[in-house]
Amino acid sequence: MIYDLNNRRFPEVVLFEFEKAAREVSAHASTSIEGNPLPLTEVKKILKSKPAYIRDGEKEVLNYNEALVNLNKQPEQEKHLALSLELILKIHQIVTKGLLP
Fold it and tell me: Is 41 helix (H, G, I), strand (E, B) or coil?
């Protein structure tokens, strides 16, 4: 069964929706672990509308999502990035942008 699912080809629109939903859940779960009180419904709204005036909790969600998008944009040959100090610092910089001095 899992083998069949792994070998299925999905239309680009479906893959885009899968990826968007995964980022929403990931942004909610990861930021809530850190104490962000926003419920999943609010996280989805923030990621959809990207409001101009936001609180720190909302900024944290947007930054986290940006980090995921940036990592996903890596060239195909770099899809399996090695964990390095440089990569960790890059992700940290994106996630904390506008939140830490």
Answer: helix
Work out the number of other CB atoms within 10 angstroms of the CB of residue 45. 15
User: Could you please report the per-residue DSSP string of 22-38?
Assistant: HHHHHHHHHHHHTT---
Is pTM beyond 0.85 here?
Answer: no
| H-type alpha helices, 34-54 | 40-49
3-state secondary structure of 92: helix
Please tell me the distance from the alpha carbon of residue 15 to that of residue 37, in angstroms, as a whole number: 29
Q: Which residue shows structure tokens 């929403």?
A: 24
Interval 4-46: pLDDT, tens: 767 778 888 988 898 999 999 999 999 999 999 999 999 999 9
Domain that holds residue 18: 2-96
Number of domains in the chain: 1
Residue pair 57/31 in contact (Cβ under 8 Å)? The answer is yes
